[in-house]
């Protein structure tokens, strides 16, 4: 099929077996011609070494049981044959007197060496990926419902294998197809996706073509959002190229990369790694200048990172406090504002320096304004709860903090109401503040929260009431509410799940100076609860029990 001078006889090659024979015949010719060349001995020695590896790779490929059933084998043999033909032609050219200059020839030899590397690698990958084991099913066979599904899986595996095999243009075509397939049937792609496929996609993130990078990050974004490939993506090194795309990619590339980081940063280890790879600064820049979707995704990523205590100072040094406060004021999407509030809540959880930074940047005012919405969220109230002990009562009053607490207790989510009750516990350290909170109308709302299904909400509400009732006018307010005594008595339940017991005891003890309230406590079963709480050494339970029992005895003697 090949003449001695390396000129290929024109033949009609159809089957994969024909292409195998053709490639096997070309190898010795190419090696022979390469050895005859006198110039560039170092480069030709390397090329000969690679040519001599081809027969064993072809043997491995052809010995696979599914060799003749997969189109990738035929394509790979065609690529190998084309490279061998180029090697023969270049060797003949170098032996002649009319080759095109030293630099041009060196470049051609380097290109040939690179193609041989690619051919050798791809032959190995065809077997390594396992794609050859998924033989394409004959279209005539459709006897069972599982056969079409198996064919789809086989085709998808072949498509994924194409991301790893061949030159960049071929990978680009495979990438185009993959993006379209994932739009229509992401589930099938995920079902057959392997680690080697993930690695191939990650490598394409660093392609020189902006178009390829954009399409690759679109596919990776879908994988990250699916929640099934995060560990593989991170372990295959996806973070550095994603961060580079956030920093300098196209508009679409930035958006998809930021969304990918948003999903991946839900893991604490990955959040730390994003900081380690320098991801904070470009994410903060997206918060400043990005479009609405990218801005929200960047804010969420930074919020996820801020949940890791040891990196909070790093975030602060990059200017995150000012950026998040600005998002609260001017964020494009409501989601961006919510993520900013959550981030500020995380940042102020325990670090006094960060608390001071938020206060000095006007964070309290921004958080309070954000709370004016129709459904106040927990994060903003939580951030304020973290800050109240670091500012004066006068500042809180002048900012309108207490009316916002009332608004949250009346209209907020359950989590926001719990955070508001917790803030009351922290802020009510003086009689003046307790007086202002009571006068603002918080007490009836806290009493209502004692009926919440959540134990933690009941506990913090009872704690707030027990603090407020130390002031006489607040006690009168509690007594006026018909639900106060029955709700508090219910919280004397001795079960371990009820963590509000001690606060209920303290609140009821403050109300026990009233005969009417003591009768109510007795009528709702307080004595039975208190006997058990006394045995459990709950503070104040024994004393309150004695007072109620004396009242019960007096009422009995009075009846006689």
Automatic annotation (TrEMBL):
The entry's keywords: Repeat
Superkingdom of the source species: Eukaryota
Domain called DUF7032: residue spans: 22-131
ARM repeat ranges, renumbered to this chain: 237-279, 441-477
Record carries keyword Repeat: yes
Name this protein carries in UniProt: Protein CELLULOSE SYNTHASE INTERACTIVE 3-like isoform X2
Source organism of the structure: Populus alba x Populus x berolinensis
